[in-house]
């Protein structure tokens, strides 16, 4: 099972809107994601438009998957005067707590058209399986008292 917790995400978003430009706070900004199970794997999509694939880091430690990405400012000439700057810059981060039923050693990642897709297989030990029944002897055993 895939679990996520970030109780301060909405508070951070609101604080950034009220007090300053997004991406300027020391706490990394969360990134939007979708997650679902299909067959024997979980698929997670993170929206990371405009981020260089080399600026994305994936780490797994003790069943915690951390995704960090950095959107750097675009180089502009000295004569450029910004009129609107709404696209957040800086570090984006998200942590997913992977249950024991997932195989964290076989995670695969693909980045295409601004979307990072992770595929996390279900661990073999967590897949449903048939258990053989040993019929044994049909005669009841007698216990001496």
From TrEMBL:
Which PANTHER family would you find in this protein's record?
Answer: HEAT-SHOCK PROTEIN 20 FAMILY MEMBER (PTHR11527)
Please report the stretch or stretches of sequence annotated as the SHSP domain. Answer: 24-136
- Identify its protein family: Belongs to the small heat shock protein (HSP20) family.
Q: Which organism is it from?
A: Kutzneria buriramensis
Signal peptide extent: none
The domain of life is: Bacteria
Q: What is this protein called?
A: HSP20 family protein
């Amino acid at each position: 099972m895939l679990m996520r917790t970030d109780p301060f995400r909405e508070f951070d978003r609101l604080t950034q809107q009220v007090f300053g430009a997004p991406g300027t706070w020391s706490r990394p900004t969360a990134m939007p994601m979708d997650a679902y199970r299909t067959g024997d794997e979980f698929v997670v999509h993170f929206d990371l438009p405009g981020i260089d694939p080399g600026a994305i880091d994936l780490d797994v430690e003790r069943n915690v998957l951390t995704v960090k990405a950095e959107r750097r400012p675009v180089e502009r000439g000295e004569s450029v005067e910004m009129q609107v700057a709404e696209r957040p810059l800086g570090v984006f981060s998200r942590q997913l707590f992977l249950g024991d039923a997932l195989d964290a050693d076989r995670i695969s990642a693909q980045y295409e058209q601004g979307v990072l897709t992770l595929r996390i297989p279900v661990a073999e030990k967590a897949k449903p399986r048939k258990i053989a029944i040993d019929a044994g002897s049909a005669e009841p055993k007698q216990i001496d008292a």
